[in-house]
Each structure stands twice: as C-alpha cells, then as structure tokens.
Specification:
single chain
Length: 196
C-alpha cells in the first residue's frame, strides 16, 4: 500500500510537473505570438508611413510652385502697395515655401476653386512670401512680427492698401481633413477684404 501511495504520489508530482511545464510552454508560445504580432504591427505602421510619404512626395511634385526664393520681397511688397492703392484692394501675403505641402495645397485650392479665385482677384493683390533655407527674408518677416515662428506655414499676413498690417491668420484653423474648408476660407477672405 505504501508503495502504491508512493507511485501515485510520484505520478501526481510528474503530472503536476507536466501541467506546470505545459503552462510555461503555453506562456512562452503566447509571448512569442505577442512578439510576432507586435513585430507585424510595427512593420505595417512602417509600410503605412512609407506609403504616406511617397503619396505626399508625389502630390507635392504635381502642385505648382508659387514661391520664388530669389525674389526681392521688400521691393515686391512696395510695388504691391502701389498697385493696391491704385486698385483699392488689400494685400494678401501667403508666407511659406515650395517645400511646404500645406502652402502648395492652399495655393492650388484657391486657384482651382472659382468662387475663391474670384473673391481673391476682386479684393486682394496676392503675394507668396518665401521662407526657405535659401532665403528666409528675415528683415521682411521681422517687420510683421515673425508670424511663422508662432503659427508655422503657411501663415497669412493681411495688409491694407497703404501697407499697414491689419491681420495675421494661422492657416491651421482653415484646414479640413487633408485640405481646406471652403466656408472657413471664404469667411477669412470676406472678413479682411477692403471695406470701401
């Protein structure tokens, strides 16, 4: 009987050991599965990021480049003031650069949306003020309080027909999804058009 108890006890210990071993094996397998899932998730995120970068680069390449890094912004803005006085329009300065996809998107949006283009053409002389490593136009930007440092790009500087700064507009509030809101942009342009 003692021998049977020892055998049963030994078998019980072996079974318990096997259960513990099996549980540990399940834990190792589960950990391996989690590790593989994490690895696949990281790979998928990296592939998504690469696809987004490629799509953004293709979009940027297809859009018109309205900024001129070689332009003399001070001289150009003085000429715009003369023109704005003559035409009784305000001056809309879109500050940014050809490196900035949101700057290019805004330009394209205004140029290809007839009601926005008409609103701009009737009320503003428009200028693309370059900010890039090639030409930061530091003196001009300083004159308007360096709004790009605060808001990023594009940023809009609105001047009256005499060249007096009357508004700075953060472009982020005009965005909607991967573009711009028609109603918000119309409201912005309507708000700052000349009053007389």
């Amino acid at each position: 009987m003692k021998r049977s108890i020892k055998i049963v006890g030994t078998l019980g210990l072996l079974l318990a050991g096997n259960v513990v071993f099996a549980q540990k094996e399940k834990t190792v397998v589960a950990d391996d599965n989690k590790s593989q899932e994490k690895s696949l998730l990281v790979q998928t995120k990296e592939q998504d990021l690469e696809a987004k970068k490629k799509a953004a680069a293709e979009e940027k390449a297809s859009l018109p480049k309205p900024y001129n890094a070689k332009a003399n912004a001070e001289k150009d803005i003085q000429a715009l003031i003369v023109k704005a006085k003559k035409e009784k329009k305000n001056i809309m300065i879109q500050a940014g650069g050809n490196w900035c996809i949101w700057c290019l998107r805004f330009n394209q949006y205004v140029q290809t949306t007839p009601e926005l283009k008409q609103l701009v053409d009737e009320n503003y002389v428009y200028y693309h003020l370059n900010w890039s490593p090639d030409n930061k136009n530091e003196k001009v930007f300083a004159q308007y309080g360096n709004p790009g440092d605060t808001f990023g790009y594009p940023v809009f500087i609105v001047l009256d027909h005499n060249g007096k700064q009357i508004h700075i507009q953060d472009s982020a509030v005009l965005e909607e999804n991967k573009g711009y809101s028609l109603e918000k942009v119309k409201t912005f342009f309507n708000t700052w058009k000349p009053t007389s």
